[in-house]
Recover the amino acids of this structure.
């Protein structure tokens, strides 16, 4: 795979992009310190191990992998949609996948390429909307904390499904639209500086039922769903409680 210079693509002229330009600009401003665990993406650094634990579990189950295997994705392709500066793409590459990772912000892709080069990882990073990506299909598609930032969630879900190979696995996570998420994620975390102000629009959050309907309409079957909860004793962790955030696995019929 290539680590060529950043290439910004756009959707076909007769098909509006799913990307919200203001959202892309907001996250692009975070590129410089994306890899700083105490920087503007500190919450993602805390969230990432929890999401990876779920992904590994679903990968082992779906692809019948040995739970002790170091590279369960060896020989498989993966697409990370909304990759930021590569916080998830790099672990996917270390798990053995041939990784393509895309983001709406060229600043994030530049930071991702620089970090991957320093780590000796070969990841195909591209600044492009998913609908303009000329690659795939992929065995695994990941889309974590992204769907709540796009302009057309239904079309976006269909585009994710379109990038999956028959029998492929999708992992998606997003905040739930509940009074608790409005209080803690938007009013609390943003006002206290735990998350940059303007990161979330609570009205764009999807309930699990709404999200599953979008995926079903796109031809995917949701096979698992868990909450990502927070407690003082455990911090962020996988849970039956889906009040704040949830992560799910869906498959495309083979």
């Amino acid at each position: 795979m290539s680590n060529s210079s950043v290439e910004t693509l756009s959707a076909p002229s007769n098909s509006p992009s799913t990307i919200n330009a203001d959202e892309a600009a907001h996250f692009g401003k975070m590129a410089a310190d994306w890899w700083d665990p105490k920087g503007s993406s500190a919450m993602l650094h805390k969230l990432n191990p929890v999401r990876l634990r779920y992904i590994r579990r679903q990968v082992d189950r779906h692809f019948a992998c040995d739970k002790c295997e170091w590279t369960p994705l060896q020989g498989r392709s993966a697409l990370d949609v909304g990759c930021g500066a590569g916080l998830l793409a790099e672990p996917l590459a270390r798990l053995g996948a041939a990784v393509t990772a895309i983001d709406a912000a060229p600043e994030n892709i530049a930071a991702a390429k620089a970090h991957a080069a320093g780590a000796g990882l070969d990841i195909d990073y591209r600044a492009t909307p998913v609908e303009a990506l000329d690659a795939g299909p992929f065995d695994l598609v990941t889309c974590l904390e992204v769907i709540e930032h796009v302009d057309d969630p239904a079309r976006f879900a269909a585009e994710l499904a379109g990038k999956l190979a028959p029998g492929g696995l999708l992992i998606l996570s997003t905040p739930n639209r509940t009074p608790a998420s409005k209080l803690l994620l938007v009013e609390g975390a943003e006002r206290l500086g735990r998350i940059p102000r303007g990161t979330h629009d609570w009205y764009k959050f999807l309930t699990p039922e709404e999200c599953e309907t979008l995926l079903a309409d796109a031809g995917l079957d949701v096979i698992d769903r868990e909450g990502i909860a927070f407690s003082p004793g455990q911090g962020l962790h996988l849970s039956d409680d889906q009040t704040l955030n949830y992560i799910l696995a869906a498959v495309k019929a083979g």
